[in-house]
Amino acid sequence: MNRRCLVVANKVDLLLENERDEIYSKLQDKAEEAGIRMETDVVGISAGATGEGLPLLTKAIRNTVLSSEQELQKEKDFAW
Questions:
Q1: Strand 43-44 to 8-9 pairing
Q2: What is the secondary structure of 15-39 as a DSSP string?
Q3: What are φ and ψ of residue 5, in 5° steps?
Q4: What is the CA radius of gyration of the chain?
Q5: Residue 53's closest CA among 20, 29, 18, 28?
Q6: Residue 1 predicted with pLDDT over 60
Q7: Backbone φ/ψ region at 11: left (φ over 0), alpha (ψ -120 to 50), beta
Q8: What is the dihedral of CA 14, 20, 26, 27, to 10 degrees?
Q9: 45-62 pLDDT, tens per residue?
Q10: For residues 60 and 75, what is the distance between their CA atoms, to the nearest angstrom?
């Protein structure tokens, strides 16, 4: 749980805008309750039908990996 995480909601193309906001909010709350260290807000995507949100997810994954690598390097540097 100490790792940076992304929470992704799929099939958002099936939801109305106000439904999306409600689901994102609930997912965010549940993640916080579980102690999940979220890197960004919930990312909504439609992986198959429309591809909506996939560029944002790709960018979020890249940023999360880079941030994690930088954090690990700082920990290694500190250990010396």
A1: parallel
A2: S-HHHHHHHHHHHHHHHHHTT-EES
A3: -135, 155
A4: 15
A5: 20
A6: no
A7: left
A8: 70
A9: 999 889 999 999 999 999
A10: 22
43: nearest Cα among 4, 5, 9, 67 = 9
**How many CB atoms sit inside 10 A of residue 79's CB?**
6
Average of per-residue pLDDT across 14-34: 94
Q: Which residues neighbour 22 within 8 Å (Cβ) at sequence distance 6 or greater?
A: none
Length of the chain: 80
What is the rounded CA–CA span in Å between residue 1 and residue 31? 10
Calculate the alpha carbon distances from 35 to 10, 76, 80 in Å.
22, 25, 30
Distances (CA, A) of 40 to 14, 49, 55, 71: 22, 24, 14, 16
